[in-house]
């Protein structure tokens, strides 16, 4: 806990400094284009120390609630566990009490003077139900209040996140489908379950989302920029989104490669949040070691050429493509068939490189005059003596012809292995207004230093805006988009995409 606090303290100091520098650097110094002032998505504040109710219903996945509880506690939250009677046949209340440090009861007749059937829900900043069984979903959808958990769900006005776990047949039964629809229509976030091995020998959709993903989504929902319900709008339902993540590796010989340090965390966060918002997500993962987000189809690739094939293939059906992958710009001209040996006392061999295709630019070229799929790129920029990182970003957005460019200012992010990030999302003029695209304008949304899921949510908002604009105007992206931009500032709202 001590080192956790020290880490947080160091991060707070660093992020405060970064905010100052970041803000100062946002003024574009070049004369060739008008100044771009970037509006902020909110405060860079911590979301620790919140009151979370962890509801646990009676499924085999109840054991995973213990790991989730441990993670939420280590993030600094005060967690009250409310199990159903059936949950206590899987995990005893002593385990939940020891891990949470709070008393545990699931009935409404314990601690009656404290009026727990009302007070637990009223005090909560967030209610998570994990696992949520078919029975629990049905009782919640019907508005029953026959135990402490369902009473809490009726009382609370806090965001509610449910992680279903059940057999595939139960998940796809029309009764469960209707209950999930009802709960979502009321603003409850019902996550799609993961596909995989179930309790018996069978497998299919029905596995509970992993605790690490639930903890990430909890941090997003509790993030200070998210002040209203629904925490995760179900606004990408029926949309197909392709996300590339990680870093490509270009082989030198059978055992060596040229690579980069991208961990893939930002792309995985986008896949996680987009799937939670209803999208059908395909994640093209280049050399990552992260757990698959729930209900996301993961296709693994190694080199830039592999990645290009996989992205092009998936993009054919996609509504949006988000290129977070760090694609190597160059690869060795030749790959040695055998391991390259050093020869004593001789000069090291000179490595000849050839250029890789630009996958993003290829996607833009392939869609031609159509405005679909929406295409988003990522760029890490440092700026130089005369040009700010944001202006480099604006130039890259215009040059590449994509709809969105998420600009990380190098040195102002949490780094490759970090769970935090800061960025400015630039939008091309064509998606600014749904009625009359203005190809000479660009918009900028600043997402301050915070969890990568918060930046993911802001990217999803921008995609929703772009999809709505494309729908309203039909096809016909103008090549005028490539002209020098006039800038236009929009107020960011990372969870409330405006259509
Ligand atoms: N990208 C790509 N194919 C490449 C290189 C980059 O699709 N061969 C994509 C990245 O996934 C990212 C965007 O292009 O979404 C911008 O990447 P970046 O490396 O900043 O672009 P470059 O064109 O290589 O620009 P620079 O010269 O600044 O490195």
Description:
It is a single chain. The chain has two domains: 51-222, Flavin prenyltransferase-like (Rossmann fold, 3-Layer(aba) Sandwich); 240-336 and 348-489, CoaB-like (Rossmann fold, 3-Layer(aba) Sandwich). Strands 1, 9, 12, 13, 14, 17, 18, 19, 20 and 21 form a ten-stranded mixed beta sheet that branches. The protein has helices at 2-25, 62-74, 93-100, 116-123, 134-142, 148-155, 168-172, 174-185, 211-222, 265-276, 304-315, 359-367, 389-400, 452-473, and strands at residues 39-40, 51-56, 78-83, 126-132, 160-164, 189-190, 194-197, 203-207, 240-246, 250-251, 257-258, 280-286, 297-301, 320-323, 330-332, 353-355, 374-381, 404-409, 420-428, 441-451, 486-489. The protein starts with a helix and ends in a 10-residue tail after the last strand. The protein has 499 residues and is α/β, with parallel strands linked by helices. It is built from 14 helices and 21 strands. Helix 13 (389-400) links the parallel strand 17 and strand 18 (404-409). Cytidine-5'-triphosphate binds next to helix 12 and strand 17.
What is the total number of structural domains? 2
Number of helical elements:
14
Helix percentage? 25-40%
- CATH 2nd-level architecture of the largest domain: 3-Layer(aba) Sandwich
Radius of gyration: 24 Å
Shape: elongated
* Main beta sheet: 10 strands, mixed
CATH class of the largest domain: Alpha Beta
CA-CA gap between termini: 43 Å
Low-pLDDT residue intervals, each spanning 5 or more residues: 1-35, 41-45, 433-440, 476-499
**Strand residue percentage:** 15-25%
Number of strands: 21
What class do helices, strands and sheet pairing give? Answer: alpha/beta
Report the mean per-residue pLDDT as an integer. Answer: 84
Bound molecules: cytidine-5'-triphosphate
CATH topology of the largest domain: Rossmann fold
């Amino acid at each position: 806990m001590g080192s956790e606090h020290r880490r947080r303290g160091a991060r707070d100091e660093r992020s405060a400094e970064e905010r100052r520098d970041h803000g100062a650097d946002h003024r574009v110094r070049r004369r060739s284009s008008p100044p771009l002032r970037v509006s902020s998505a909110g405060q860079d504040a911590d979301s620790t120390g919140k009151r979370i109710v962890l509801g646990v219903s009676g499924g085999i996945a109840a054991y995973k609630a213990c790991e989730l509880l441990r993670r939420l506690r280590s993030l600094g939250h005060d967690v009250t566990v409310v199990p159903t009677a059936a949950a206590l046949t899987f995990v005893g209340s002593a385990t939940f009490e020891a891990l949470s440090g709070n008393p545990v009861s699931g009935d409404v007749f314990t601690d009656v003077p404290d009026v727990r059937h009302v007070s637990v829900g009223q005090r909560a900043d967030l209610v998570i139900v994990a696992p949520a069984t078919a029975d629990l979903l049905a009782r919640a959808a019907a508005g029953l209040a026959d135990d402490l958990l369902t009473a809490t769900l009726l009382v609370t006005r806090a965001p509610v996140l449910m992680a279903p776990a059940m057999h595939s047949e139960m998940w796809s039964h029309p009764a469960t489908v209707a209950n999930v629809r009802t709960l979502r229509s009321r603003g409850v976030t019902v996550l799609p379950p993961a596909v995989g091995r179930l309790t018996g020998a069978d497998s299919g959709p029905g596995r509970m989302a992993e605790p690490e993903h639930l903890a990430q989504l909890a941090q997003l929902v509790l993030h200070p920029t998210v002040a209203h319900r629904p925490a995760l709008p179900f606004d990408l339902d029926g949309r197909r989104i392709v996300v590339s993540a990680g870093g490509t590796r270009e082989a030198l010989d059978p055992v060596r490669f040229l690579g980069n340090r991208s961990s893939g965390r930002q792309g995985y966060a986008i896949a996680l949040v987009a799937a939670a918002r209803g999208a059908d997500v395909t994640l093209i993962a280049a050399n990552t070691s992260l757990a698959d987000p729930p209900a996301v189809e993961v296709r693994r690739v190694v080199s830039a050429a592999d990645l290009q094939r996989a992205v092009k293939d998936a993009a054919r059906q996609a509504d949006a493509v988000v290129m977070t992958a760090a694609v190597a710009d160059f690869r060795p001209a030749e790959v040695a068939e055998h391991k390259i040996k050093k020869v004593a006392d001789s000069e090291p061999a000179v490595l000849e490189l050839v250029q890789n295709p630009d996958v993003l630019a290829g996607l833009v070229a392939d869609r031609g005059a159509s405005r679909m799929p929406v295409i988003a790129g990522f760029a890490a920029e440092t700026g130089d003596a005369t040009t700010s990182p944001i202006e480099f970003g604006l130039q890259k957005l215009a040059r590449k012809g994509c709809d969105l460019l998420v600009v990380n200012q190098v040195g102002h992010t949490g780094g490759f292995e970090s769970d935090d990030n800061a960025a400015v999302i630039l939008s091309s003029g064509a998606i600014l207004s749904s009625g009359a695209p203005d190809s000479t304008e660009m918009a900028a949304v600043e997402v301050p230093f915070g969890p990568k899921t918060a930046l993911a949510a802001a990217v999803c908002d921008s995609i929703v805006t772009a999809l709505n604009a494309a729908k309203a105007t039909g096809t016909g992206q103008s090549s005028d988009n490539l002209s020098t931009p006039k800038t236009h500032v929009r107020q960011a709202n990372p969870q409330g995409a405006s259509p």
